[in-house]
Specification:
Blueprint: E1 10-14, H1 17-20, H2 33-36, H3 44-48, H4 52-66, E2 70-74, H5 77-80, H6 90-105, E3 109-115, H7 121-124, H8 133-149, E4 155-160, H9 162-167, H10 179-203, E5 208-212, E6 218-220, H11 225-248, H12 253-261, H13 272-278, E7 284-287, E8 292-296, E9 320-322, H14 339-353, E10 357-361, H15 378-397, E11 401-407, E12 426-428, E13 440-442, H16 444-454
Helix pairs in contact: 4-6, 8-10, 10-13, 14-15
The chain binds 6-O-phosphono-beta-D-galactopyranose.
Length: 459
């Protein structure tokens, strides 16, 4: 017998500033690493994106029409502080203040990510997260947000997918540098996150704050103990490093040993470990797309690029490699589809940390087709229905899940595949670099999800 979702379950969906807003240099916004880097797709795609900056009221009205209880969006650091650590841009503050008020007008709870892959270019030019000064810049930026929006935002997320920034650095500005550099950047972000969580608890005792990593179960390719050991270690590197620190304030012991073995332990200031220990998140938010599979490589194997799936980066390989999973179907973009893994992942997190959980991304990127003003995205409805069912099974198992956001509320720029790869309940009429008219259309999944929300998860 399925347990029902909580009566105040936060049904919603998500976007991020650089993938949805456009207006990359308007009203005083400074460039972020996403606006200037040559990444797939051409950065011109990010300069307009969905042009949400100029369609905000129209877009929020569409989310309200679906009956959203929450909307997860991110604030662009360089729209609020154009060079990252200098003057505050009043028009940046104004945009987000209006966006928050628009959500509240419809009874939609704003769920805000303060940093979603878009480091200000001004800070990147000063070494980015390699530079310890970026910690102070981040704390000050969040202090500005707490002062301006702490009265209206009750749920805060620190860093989106910090683990993917370390495992897939190229796409988001952390670069394909050495393991030593990646984990030095990682350490600075972890200290910055701890300081911000403490600042938030001090200034805004009534609000809740948590991390938003990408967490997914890691499977061994076979029951060979070497494969199981590889999956166990990769799980610690990919998942538990980030949640152990957010919840318990300590570095995961297996990852610490792995870094020591690779001469990649981060340089620290004397009170860094105490700072990490002093901070504890109020809930765990996480993004889930699919599970991963790894296999052990014979010890001493040359460090080589293994099977590149989107959750596994070759910078961690050498004694294990990513592998296909012949039991799972794949999306058109080569991502496994594993709803069962979603239940497994929820239960793994809940049993390890016993913290309230909210899913902040889950979705299917696909080639949607506009036909006579309609988009028949049954594949997306199937994906989401199957994942919601598994989430309901996890809730029935006893996991405390209080919300679910799909990726994405409205079509926006895929980090890796531009506008071709669509995720939204709302179709936006443009193709890569061709702006067309940016007209919004309700997909079949728009009406389906409206029914899911109205029935609190039935359908
Ligand atoms: C997650 C990011 C999102 C979005 C999503 C889809 O890692 O948090 O911002 O990018 O992946 O991936 P993609 O955009 O590469 O299709």
């Amino acid at each position: 017998e399925m347990k029902p979702f909580k009566k105040d379950f936060l049904w919603g969906s998500a976007t991020s500033a650089y993938q949805v807003e456009g207006a990359w240099n308007e009203d005083g916004k400074g460039p972020s690493v996403q606006d200037v880097k040559e990444i797939v797709p051409d950065t011109s795609d990010f300069k307009v994106a969905t042009d949400h900056y100029h369609h905000m009221q129209e877009d929020i009205a569409l989310l309200a029409e679906m009956g959203f209880k929450t909307y997860r969006f991110s604030i662009s650091w360089s729209r609020v502080i154009p060079d990252g650590d200098g003057e505050v841009n009043p028009k940046g503050i104004q945009f987000y203040s209006d966006l928050i008020d628009e959500c509240l007008k419809y009874g939609i709870e704003p769920l805000v990510t303060v940093y979603h892959f878009d480091l200000p270019q001004g800070l990147a030019e000063k070494g980015g997260w390699e530079n310890r000064a970026t910690i102070d810049a981040f704390v000050r930026y969040c202090d500005v947000l707490f002062d301006n929006f702490g009265d209206r935002i009750k749920l805060w997320l620190t860093i989106n997918e910090q683990n993917m920034m370390i495992l897939h650095g190229a796409a988001v500005g952390t670069g394909e540098s050495s393991i030593k550099s990646l984990y030095q950047q990682n350490h600075h972000m972890l200290v910055a996150q701890a300081l911000v969580m403490n600042l938030c608890h001090k200034k805004l005792p009534h609000v809740k704050i948590g991390p938003a990593p990408n967490i997914s179960a890691v499977y061994p390719k076979t029951n060979n103990p070497a494969d199981v050991e590889a999956a166990d270690l990769y799980t610690a590197i990919r998942n538990w490093l980030y949640l152990d620190i957010a919840v318990y304030g300590v570095y995961n012991h297996q990852v610490w040993a792995y870094l020591e073995e690779n001469d990649a332990l981060p340089d620290m200031e004397p009170d860094d470990l105490a700072i990490l220990k002093s901070a504890e998140c109020d809930f765990i938010a996480f993004n889930y797309y699919n599970s991963s599979t790894v296999e052990a490589l014979p010890s001493g194997t040359e460090r080589k690029a293994g099977k590149k799936d989107q959750q596994l980066s070759d910078s961690q390989e050498g004694f294990f490699a990513g592998s296909d999973n012949e039991y799972l179907p794949y999306t058109e973009f080569g991502w496994q589809i594993d709803p069962t893994g979603f239940r497994t992942t929820i239960n793994q997190i809940y049993s390890r940390y016993r913290k309230p959980l909210i899913i902040t991304e889950n979705g299917l990127g696909g080639f949607d087709k506009l036909e006579d003003g309609k988009i028949h995205d049954t594949y997306r409805i199937d994906y989401l229905r199957n994942h919601i069912k598994q989430m309901n099974l996890a809730v029935t198992d006893g996991a405390d899940v209080f919300g679910y956001c799909t990726w994405s509320a409205i079509d926006l720029i895929s980090t890796h595949q531009g506008f071709r790869k669509r995720y939204g309940f709302v179709y936006v009429n443009r193709e890569d670099f061709d702006l067309k008219d940016l007209k919004r259309y309700r997909k079949d999944s728009f009406y389906w999800y409206k029914g899911v929300i109205a029935s609190n998860g039935k359908n």
